[in-house]
Write a structure and sequence with these properties.
The protein contains twelve helices and 17 strands. By secondary structure, it is α+β, with helices and mostly antiparallel strands. α1 (17-28) packs across α11 and α2 crosses α3 (81-89). It binds adenosine monophosphate.
């Protein structure tokens, strides 16, 4: 595609912190950003040239958005598939493709897709009744994790099933169509962040090592304590997914590293990712700038990491320590401008570089 000229407007669906950091990166390259969100006063809209507040299913509002922007991207994967379709029908160029979004929205479709292109996943089964759950437990065994197929994130919509007693009544507790996954006794969790341009060029960042608390990412460190073979497997998986969707933009895949050194894919995110926030200070091109470059048809930027990294999420009240964090010369502080520090809410992060 012809590279978008500086001064063009980039559209972002979603108003959260990922949209905010994408918008800041877009501004650095001379673009204007128009946010489309159903949330008034969103973190992203407060740093963007324009915001349209509307419902994701409002075709007229989406058509207005499509008219104002040269390309549309998303900052969260739960944008309804109809939204992307309505935008395309209104003449917008959308990246990444709605198919990638649709697959990533449903944990069963996602794992089926990954398996179909030869990427290892935990054993899994779709369950839409207690009887199907019991059947799946008989096949997959315990311990296992029951997750909602759709709209689960940061560990929400998940039940750990350790014993038969946990299985009784579990489907009703979940309350929505689910997926049962075998529990993976992993040694560590890693993620790969890669990007693909309209011309098919692919770049990737160093593998990130991630620690979760209560299902929410708490800490990312680099270099990951892994072998080159693991990086090779993760990269091959990312390339397969990028090519399968003719994908444009940044993509993340999260993996479990098993005791025998094999990699098992947990999930893919068709977007910039929390485990890549360190790239703002720690890599020559941040994941946010990379995504903007990719969707704008610009050359992809170098991904070289310049230091050892520790990224810490500030969850809920942790962001209240902002003045101590601001005084720490080793901590680069990012706050997302969210008005309320609810428990479990991502309020900001700090990145520490070790030279
Ligand atoms: P998710 O929302 O699916 O990414 O799950 C959040 C976290 O729960 C993951 O990062 C893991 O720490 C843990 N988890 C999820 N699925 C599994 C699994 N099949 N086996 C072991 N741990 C899991």
């Amino acid at each position: 595609m012809t590279p978008l000229k500086p001064g063009s407007t980039i559209g972002i669906l979603g108003g959260g912190q990922l949209g905010r950091m994408l918008s800041i990166a877009a501004a650095q390259l001379g673009f204007d950003v128009c946010i489309f969100t159903d949330e008034p006063d969103s973190p992203a809209s407060r740093v963007s040239a324009k915001t349209i507040i509307g419902n994701y299913l409002d075709d007229a509002a989406l058509a207005d958005f499509a008219r104002r922007v040269s390309v549309v991207t998303t900052e969260f994967e739960n944008v309804p598939a109809q939204t992307a379709e309505a935008l395309i029908a209104a003449g917008a160029r959308v990246a990444p493709s709605p198919q990638a979004l649709a697959v990533a929205q449903d944990r069963f479709d996602e794992k089926s897709f990954l398996e179909s292109i030869g990427i290892a996943t935990p054993p899994f089964a779709a369950v839409s009744s207690q009887a199907e759950l019991e059947h799946a437990v008989a096949r997959i065994g315990l311990p296992a994790i029951l997750k909602t197929r759709r709209l689960g994130y940061d560990g929400r919509g998940q039940l750990r099933l350790r014993t038969e007693a946990d299985v009784a009544g579990a489907y009703e507790k979940l309350g929505a169509p689910g997926i049962l996954e075998g529990f993976c006794p992993f040694e560590r969790e890693v993620s790969i962040i890669a990007a693909r341009g309209w011309d098919g060029a692919i770049v990737h960042y160093d593998l990130c090592e991630n620690e979760h608390a209560g299902g929410i990412l708490s800490r990312t460190t680099l270099p990951a304590q892994i072998s080159d073979a693991i990086l090779g497997t993760a990269l091959e998986a990312a390339q397969k997914v990028l090519q399968a969707f003719d994908y444009v933009g940044v993509l993340t895949i999260e993996f479990f590293v098993m005791p025998d050194g094999s990699l098992v894919a947990n999930e893919m995110a068709p977007r910039v990712h929390n485990s890549g926030h360190w790239t703002i200070e720690g890599a020559l091109t941040s994941q946010f700038e990379q995504h903007i470059r990719a969707i704008a048809g610009w050359p992809l930027g170098p991904t070289t990491r310049i230091a050892g990294i520790e990224m810490l999420n500030l969850i809920g009240e942790e962001a209240g320590d902002w003045s101590a964090l601001a005084a720490d010369p080793n901590a680069r502080l990012h706050l997302y401008g969210k008005r309320n520090a609810r428990a479990g809410r991502k309020m900001g992060h700090v990145t520490k570089l070790k030279f």
